[in-house]
Amino acid sequence: MNKYSFIARMPDEPGALHRAAEIVKSYSGNINRIQYDRRIDPATVFFEVTATPATYLQMKEDLHAIGYLQETLPTIGFLKFSVYLPHQPGSLFELLTYITGAGANIAYIDFDDRRCDPGRVTISLNVEETAIVESLLDRLKSRYRLDIIEYDTTGEKLDDTVFYVRFAQAVRGLIGTAEDGFLLSFLQDVNHIVQELNSLGQDPKEVFESILLTGRTLRDTTGDRFYADVQRIRLSDAVELFCFQMPGGGNIFLLCAPDETVMIDTGYGIYHEDVVRMFQHYGLPNQQMIGRVYITHADADHCGGGGFFGAKAYTHAGSLAIIRQANRAYGSRSESSILEEVYTTVINLFSRFTPPENPELFPAEKIGMRSIFPVLARVKVHDLEFEVLESLGGHLHGQVYLFCPGHGIVFTADTLINFGSLDEDRKRYNSLADFLVTSVNVDSECARRERKALLELIRGLDEELAPSGRRCLVACGHGAVSVLNDGRLEAVGPVERYRAGESKGG
After folding, report:
1. Do 44 and 17 meet the contact criterion of CB atoms below 8 Å apart?
2. CATH (residue range 2-65)
3. What is the pTM of this model?
């Protein structure tokens, strides 16, 4: 017995849902999940069933035979026009006969013969094929005076009688060409996150809009619209730190030494080409000249560009497991969360997730302790020596920190974030993930313990460095490189804005 999913598109009439359930039952199938909400789409039902492979095929055949099984996602256009009818009995009936004969679905009709233009009928149609539209319009033009108000083939103007088709067309527009089977599977995943959040009292339409806004934000901050906030900080006589705050998602750090350049976290895959151009703008090594890449954790905004670099990547075994399981909650007590699993699918798709394929793993056995964190390894970048600290899994299983007490810097991944340094666009984008998974931390209580311990480490190092007039630099997962003052993170040094559109030839 296996689990299978299918989408049924059925008539909005009594008994339709019962008929589909009867077919599942007739083949001894067990319905594990069903979701239908006429507020979203009055004709679409999502099923997940347990059945044998053979009986599942029989179910599909029967559902296909009665026209219920949705196996394709047609490109549906929206047409709005006005027709001026003669003032005679049966004229509206004749018009509707033409429309019905063309196979068009009326989404809206408006007619009142008491108006100043009593023969005017305004109609909106959802039409699957362009040829049908052209044939229908040719026929109507030969019979009536006709005004085309709007014709749209992008799906943006469709009404909610085809909501899921419209949503799928919007997704296709964000990711490029995609097979219908892939999009139908993606709709199943998205519908599951909608069902979960709806049970928590969230508006389904807001969930769909947040998902699309995630994809649109990433798409709309690439190319000439890409930008980053940049800090350059001298860590030693030989090593300079670059911090690049991406438009969406986490930071990219470069440690530039005379003998090599080391990257810590990679940003989203969708930003890779923009990142390479930005490195060139600052005279930094190209992607083939970066010596090592350290991945702090498996979220797409921290490792999703790693596969584009030729350098050896290093990460925790837990991060590699999350990448391969495609579930950011893997290894945590939230592992069974539908929200976490589906969000991982969504963000990996929209961000062009391309993690390193075969990273080298940090040792599993600790070689010491630093506060509450096991020390897994020590790594050097020229004259800087870092301890690789294993987190407790509050934000994500397998997250690590890089701590350099000798030169006063700690890379905290997403356990510490300088929210105050984020611009409004970044705050808005980050809030989408919070909404879709309810919390970006897979274990909030554990994440609080980690934050407290890191802050104590930073305060302790500040005290050690005080005689030399130096401070512990906090390289957060998001936001500016900072120092800790009175419990608050404050950005250090100048922060400049890099804009792709302004850097050509620079």
Report:
1. no
2. 3.30.70.260
3. 0.85
